[in-house]
Specification:
heterodimer, A: about 300 residues, mainly alpha, globular, B: about 325 residues, MetI-like fold, about 0% strand
């Protein structure tokens, strides 16, 4: 690049230095939809954290009221077939959704990033073996993969988390591997190698910090699609065991009584949609705020 | 270009081998003995002797070493023989042949819709940025990628089926039998299958089109005095299609994933519903056959996408890393 002159010019007219955090904050909240998404997300997280205090009734208590009553002042969303309070179950359902989302992203990113770093940095045989396996896993549609894995492992929320993790590990591996391939060609990596730094320390100190931002964006975006996938699985009847509350299963339960009380099915569906929307928007906002190409433009 | 295609083909074959191994061995980890479940369902209770079980095991070839079983299975697959369903007592190939056309019919319509409508929406939103179509369509695409498909299906059944009585709420009829009824029945499932792909195609198209129309060669085309339609459709479209094509490849995968849900909601006798019922019935012969066929289709589509990618973008054709 032959931009020496422009760089000098830029220095003379450089705006006063702003704190990076403040810039992130400003760019992040500059879009209305992102701010709305952030507020929804905050609300869902608070609901999940303080569910025992916020839920008006015990979500598992059968016969709090008559079965399938219409929404009224005591039971804002009515009750299900077993006379359980729908609003309370909806609030507790946020715990299931967020738990599955966060744990899956945690497990999958840990394993996926590790595999991607190894494949990208060492190349050769590790690259060949890891990437071919990833290709094979990528051939299965995510939902299909999770469905089959969950069936093999048996139901239960922890198996849904494992199944979804396996299904999304390839995304992290591919992204990490691609970025590692280009980062390892940089001079500072070569310098560290010449100074005798081990592969492990180069990967952790030089490569990982450089790919952290794109990974963070990917993780946020994926939380949304994972919550959708978890809801789909629980709609099909795979996942949390009966007394527990999950939004997808609630939609399915309500579906059978749609004529009498459509709210039973509509409310949990809306909750899923708002939560996914919130994660997608926060992901979008993070992507804009963390994108180095947009620094100085926004 | 030829070398590139051959390389891709070889890699795809290797991946196919891995896929078949994965499908076969993962299925063998299924909890419970499917034969026991089968016997408990189909026979008198006192007929459940261990001799009968051994006989069934021999009949399904489950007494041989696992590698022999794999070789037997995979050689059968290449002859079009996917084994016999433990549950239906029918050839799995026949079961799939009955159901695949249903899924393909709806899936193909959904795919075409999501590609053409999605691209058109993205194109209009980008070229007329800030106009009223953009301001209406772009927020809708945000909703399209967030709505749970099963919920959308239920909403539509409630509104158009139960309240307005415009459309039948469930079922499937072949278009060759009764075209009008078939069309009516497929409207809602196709919308459900298409909505995610349509919205993501539109979003991707909008952003990549916006990137392309600000480039110098487009300004040159304007300066030459070309008409707008020529600039957009001839000069800008090809370059902005590159990122969208990847999404289209993923669209096939998403249609198959979505069919599992949509066929359950609308009670459609397709491959997705067969898969779900076989998973719950632990009919692993059917599950592994369906998983293998779907994965192979996705693999072939991705291969085509990769090759067309190279055809569209010479940068990929000539200088590819690793």
């Amino acid at each position: 690049m032959n931009k020496t002159s422009t760089i000098e010019a830029d220095f003379s007219e450089a705006p006063p230095r702003v704190s990076e955090w403040r810039r992130l904050w400003r760019v992040f909240f500059s879009r209305g939809t992102v701010a709305v998404g952030f507020c929804i997300l905050l609300l869902v997280v608070l609901l999940a954290l303080f569910a025992p205090f916020l839920a008006p009734y015990d979500p598992y208590q059968v016969g709090v009221t008559d079965p399938l009553i219409q929404p009224d002042s005591m039971h804002w969303l009515g009750s299900d077939t077993l006379g359980r309070d729908t609003l309370s179950r909806l609030i507790y359902g946020s715990r299931t959704a967020l738990m599955v989302g966060f744990l899956t992203v945690g497990i999958a990113s840990l394993m996926g990033v590790t595999l991607g770093l190894i494949a990208g940095y060492f190349g050769g045989i590790p690259y060949m073996v890891i990437m071919r396996c990833i290709d094979a896993v990528m051939c299965f549609p995510m939902l299909l993969m999770a469905l089959i894995m969950a069936a093999v492992l048996g139901g239960g929320i922890q198996n849904v988390i494992i199944a979804l993790s396996v299904a999304i590990i390839p995304h992290y591996t591919r992204v990490t591997c691609g970025m590692t391939l280009s980062i390892r060609e940089n001079d500072y990596v070569k310098a560290a190698q010449l100074m005798g730094a081990g592969s492990e320390s180069i990967l952790l100190k030089h490569v990982l910090p450089n790919i952290l931002h794109p990974l963070l964006v990917l993780m946020t975006m994926q939380l949304g699609s994972l919550i959708l996938a978890e809801a789909s699985l629980s709609f099909l009847g795979i996942g949390i065991e009966p007394p527990g509350a999950a939004w997808g299963a609630m939609v399915n339960d309500g579906y059978r009584h749609m004529i009498r009380n459509p709210v039973l099915s509509f409310a949990p569906g809306l909750a899923i949609m708002l939560t996914v929307f919130a994660f997608n928007m926060v992901g979008d906002g993070l992507r804009d705020a963390l994108d180095p190409r947009l620094r100085g433009l926004l | 270009m030829t070398a590139f295609v051959i390389r891709r083909l070889l890699l795809a074959l290797l991946t196919l081998l891995l896929v078949s191994l994965a499908v076969f061995f993962v299925m063998r980890l299924l909890p419970g003995d499917p034969l026991l479940i089968y016997m408990a369902q189909s026979m008198e209770f006192d007929a459940m002797s261990s001799e009968a079980l051994d006989e069934l095991r021999r009949e399904f070839g489950l007494d041989k070493p696992i590698m022999v079983q794999y070789m037997h299975w995979i050689s059968g697959v290449f002859r079009g023989d996917f084994g016999t369903s433990i549950f239906y007592r029918e050839k799995v190939g026949k079961l799939m042949l009955e159901r695949f056309p249903v899924t393909l019919h709806l899936g193909l319509l959904a795919l075409l819709g999501s590609v053409f409508v999605g691209l058109a929406v993205g194109l209009i939103a980008a070229v007329r940025r800030g106009s009223w179509p953009d301001r209406i369509l772009t927020p809708l695409t945000y909703l399209g990628v967030t709505v749970p498909v099963f919920w959308l299906g239920i909403l539509m059944i409630y509104v158009f089926g139960l309240k307005l009585h415009w459309l039948p709420i469930a079922g499937y009829t072949s278009p060759w039998e009764n075209f009008w009824l078939s069309t009516q029945q497929s409207i809602m499932p196709v919308i459900c299958l298409a909505v995610f792909g349509l919205a993501s195609n539109a979003r991707q198209m909008r952003s990549s089109m916006l990137e392309v129309i600000h480039q110098d060669y487009i300004r040159t085309a304007w300066a030459k005095g070309l008409s707008e339609s020529r600039i957009i459709l001839k000069h800008a479209l090809k370059n902005s299609l590159i990122p969208v094509i990847t999404l289209m490849g993923m669209g096939v995968s998403m249609v198959f994933g979505g069919s599992v849900i949509v066929e359950t909601v609308f009670a459609i006798p397709g491959i997705g519903r067969l898969l779900v019922s076989s998973i719950f019935g632990q009919d692993y012969v059917v599950v592994q056959a369906i998983a293998f066929v779907i994965a192979s289709i996705v693999l072939v589509v991705n291969l085509i996408v990769d090759i067309s990618y190279a055809w569209l973008d010479p940068k990929i054709r000539y200088g590819r890393i690793a």
